[in-house]
Design brief:
It is a single chain. This protein is α/β, with parallel strands linked by helices. It is built from 31 helices and twelve strands. Helix 1 packs across helix 5 and helix 24 packs antiparallel against helix 25. This is High affinity cAMP-specific and IBMX-insensitive 3',5'-cyclic phosphodiesterase 8B.
Length: 762
């Protein structure tokens, strides 16, 4: 803001302090000469000129002098005029407007009055001027754009064409501006009713795109892909039409036909025509891509992300979304297809335009209430709110285990515990025996052993004492009162993760920092778990649900708390000696893996893993005669693939209970069922929606719930993980355990084990 006041007074002070309050940079000029010099240097958006007294300078002359400069084109100039007495005539604003002023301000030295005036100018005229200023940049972009651009009025009078349009059509800009489109020669290769179809569509305010033949100035016919977008102005009236035109690249001598669809309301036409052979001059990579010949839908998010190559030229690359390319290829494949095939592809396109590409539609696969309840409880955020029910679980953030003994170094482990840990590399390792001998503190002992095996202390550059203190703090913040989500579960997931990392193909696909991140993520992945699902917390409007906006509530809390606890005390900060870059990389990997354990994204993670890792690997192995060494090396070269592997690994470790030996599997099934029973009991007590009604301790069939869980979540995921990591022992346990639950279900038994009369080994 530039204030032009000959003398300092209350009015100039009012504007000065108003600028300060609004955060504007402000200059003050006392003479017309200094004002013009300052303006030419600073290019102010707003100028306030004192028009109350002509004794010092002529305000209108100052305004005209400023308006005569080029930078003043977009500047707002405000005239401060004196109040008139009752017996004086009102001052006309017309002379002021002719002099170049935009607004008048009646003298008022109140800071708030000055502030309000400046704020209104900013949000009104100044921001409008910003848009006008940007027009030069927009037209510069259009002039350098490789697509032909044509802008017409609502009655189809040409108002602008860019150089690319001139090159494509052979006309000069001066030959086109001001002419109606009907005055230009038309190609006779279009269908007779095509123009009527296009006009009907765009006059309704709908976008049209399709293939159109145009005639160049030389008389040649050229085939273009045209996209015409109506531009609405004030009152919703169509003011302009913007046409983007690209040459349709065809192979020489081939016939091209396109089936064009328009958002269900403006139906397109199928064109069969023999196109002229020509070479498409494109400065991008020499590749032919099927683009922009696509089904158009106003509510299709994937299509709204289409970027035309004019934008892509900025980086000399295409930035079209992969899903858009898939849709374009399918559209192209519909050419000359039989009606049944075309209809099937239309259905495919409808599915691809949904936002939930990886989530199965509940109720279509299995009508079993156990399955629907389990899936609904684990894969929804439970956004059914009841007012007045506030659930806040008691969270005691502990820093130590009190007086319980913990090992200072690995060699200080009691003999009975050390003996059990000798078998920790086996998949059949009994975590419940370790839980018993450690008095429900298995995580610190197993964790120290596993972290030592993988050299975590060396990677983090921290001492064993620091690592032990960290394990102690993390384990203290698992709730031993939970039947399932306690430190034993964390230790079990850590054990499974370490087992998977011991597999040659898994280890060979990951960097050492990834391995460290995976072990830490497994350790902290459920810290401070309240023993209730995300759906429960959302329905109860818990503090955590409110904090994390009902999205991945627990998983977000686990990661956040883990890093808070680690950084809170230098004695347990295992990250304190890492460089900033290593810490950021490690942190992001840990967060990503813990968030992957949230079940709402389960099918997305599994499908991405199968499509990006398993299928390409199988093709690579078959092409290299059975060897997967090269495949493993290539995986390590792609960080996105490593991320998919880490997510899949911790997901499988988190729900590996059905793949454990039968006795361990049965124990875990009983524990998770008890936790769900307790949640159902509390939901009924508090009057909350019952998320999983089948988990009623009086009626639930645990075998049925296990069968549903294995069928819906486990079997496909572990088939894929086994195909990558080669885990025959796990798959044998899974098959055997599944038969166990099936047998119990067939006997209508709701318990965990066979009755004695049936348990005869047959």
């Amino acid at each position: 803001v530039l204030l032009i006041f000959a003398k300092e007074d209350k009015q100039s002070d009012g504007f000065w302090w108003a600028c300060d309050r609004a955060g504007y940079r402000c200059n003050i000029a006392r003479t017309p000469e200094s004002a013009l010099e300052c303006f030419l240097d600073k290019h102010h958006e707003i100028i306030v000129i004192d028009h109350r007294n002509s004794r010092y300078f002529e305000a209108e002359a100052v305004c005209r002098a400023i308006r005569a400069t080029k930078p003043a084109e977009h500047t707002i100039i405000l005239s401060v005029i004196p109040h008139t007495s009752a017996d004086q005539d009102e001052i006309s604003v017309v002379p002021l407007l002719h002099a170049g002023f935009n607004k008048v301000f009646w003298e008022n030295s109140s800071i708030i009055a000055c502030y309000n005036e400046l704020i209104q100018i900013e949000y009104g005229e100044v921001r409008s001027q910003f848009k006008l200023r940007a027009c030069n940049s927009v037209f510069t972009a259009l002039d350098h754009c490789h697509e032909a651009i044509e802008i017409t009025s609502d009655d189809h009078v040409i108002q602008y064409v860019n150089p690319a349009f001139e090159r494509m059509m052979g006309y000069q800009k001066g030959e086109l501006i001001g002419k109606e489109l009907t005055e230009l020669p038309k190609s006779d290769k279009n269908r007779a009713d095509l123009l009527d179809t296009i006009n009907t569509c765009i006059k309704r305010g709908k976008e049209w795109q399709g293939v159109y033949y145009a005639r160049r100035k030389s008389g040649d016919n050229i085939q273009q892909h045209v996209k015409i977008t109506p531009v609405t102005g004030q009152g919703g009236k169509i003011r302009h039409f913007v046409s983007i035109k690209k040459l349709c690249c065809t192979n020489e001598g081939n016939k091209q036909s396109y089936k064009i669809h328009h958002d269900g309301k403006c139906s397109g036409d199928q064109f069969h025509s023999e196109s002229h052979a020509f070479r498409c001059k494109n400065r991008r990579k020499e590749s032919i891509d099927v683009k922009s010949i696509t089904s158009r839908s106003s509510d299709a998010p994937s299509l709204q992300t289409r970027r035309y190559s004019s934008v892509a030229k900025i980086h000399s690359m295409t930035i079209e979304a992969p899903i858009t390319k898939v849709i374009n290829i399918i559209n192209s494949a519909q050419e000359n297809s039989p009606v049944t095939v075309a209809e099937a592809l239309d259905r495919v396109l409808e599915i691809l335009r949904t936002t939930e590409l990886y989530s199965p539609q509940l109720g279509t696969k299995d009508e079993d209430p156990h399955t629907s309840d389990l899936v609904g409880g684990l894969m929804t955020d439970g956004l059914r709110r009841l007012s007045g029910n506030e659930y806040v679980f008691s969270k005691n953030v502990n820093q130590s285990h009190g007086n319980l003994p913990v090992p200072v170094f690995i060699n200080d482990v009691p003999p009975c515990i050390a003996h059990l840990l000798e078998n920790e590399e086996s998949w059949d390792f009994n975590i419940f025996e370790l839980e018993a001998v450690t008095h429900k503190r298995p995580l610190v002992y197993l964790g120290m052993k596993i972290f030592a095996r993988f050299g975590v202390c060396e990677s983090l550059n921290c001492s064993e004492v620091t690592l032990r203190a960290w394990f102690q703090v993390i384990e203290a913040n698992y709730h031993s009162s939970n039947s399932y989500h306690n430190s034993t579960h964390a230790a079990d997931v850590l054990h499974a993760t370490a087992f998977f990392l011991g597999k040659e193909r898994v280890q060979g696909s990951l960097d050492h920092l990834d391995i460290v991140a995976a072990l830490i993520a497994a350790t902290v992945h459920d810290v401070d778990h309240p023993g209730r699902t995300n759906s429960f917390l959302c329905n109860a409007s818990s503090e955590l649900a409110v904090l994390y906006n009902d999205t991945a509530v627990l998983e977000s809390h686990h990661t956040a708390l883990a890093f808070q606890l680690t950084a809170k005390d230098n004695k347990c900060n295992i990250f304190k000696n890492l460089s900033r870059n290593h810490y950021r990389t490690l942190r992001q990997a840990i967060i990503d893996m813990v968030l992957a354990t949230e079940m709402t994204k389960h099918f997305e993670h599994v499908n991405k893993f199968v499509n990006s890792i398993i299928k390409p690997s199988e093709e690579s192995i078959s092409n290299s005669e059975g060897s997967d060494c090269g495949c493993t090396t290539s995986l390590k070269n792609f960080p996105d693939n490593q991320t998919l592997i880490k997510r899949m690994m911790i997901k499988c470790a988190d729900v590996a209970n059905p793949c454990r030996p039968l006795e361990l599997c049965i124990e875990w099934a009983g524990r998770i069922s008890e936790e769900y029973f307790a949640q159902t009991d509390e939901e009924k007590r508090q009057g909350l929606p019952v998320v999983m009604p089948v988990f009623d301790r009086n009626t639930c069939s645990i075998p049925k719930s296990q069968i549903s869980f294995i069928d819906y979540f486990i079997m496909d995921m572990f088939d894929a993980w086994d195909a990558f990591a080669h885990l025959p022992a796990l798959m044998q346990h899974l098959t055997s355990n599944y038969k166990h639950w099936k047998t119990l279900d067939e006997l209508k038994c709701r318990s965990l084990r066979l009755p004695p009369e049936n348990n005869n080994g047959s």
